[in-house]
Structure prediction request, 66 residues.
Amino acid sequence: MTWDYQKEEYLKQAKVDPIWHLERLINYGLRGKKIDEKMLKKYLPQLKIPEERRTFLELILWNKPF
Prediction:
């Protein structure tokens, strides 16, 4: 898992806060996992991620020009 959370704590937090979980996956790596497309579309506007990553994800999800 990540350096700042024990696995059990991470999984608990991920369940109760999907925005936090998506931000962690995007910012720190997926480690072989895939992001749920529906969740990403739902929460993308609320995510605190670098603008270039947001632009890239919008391009992939909606073929939105930048």
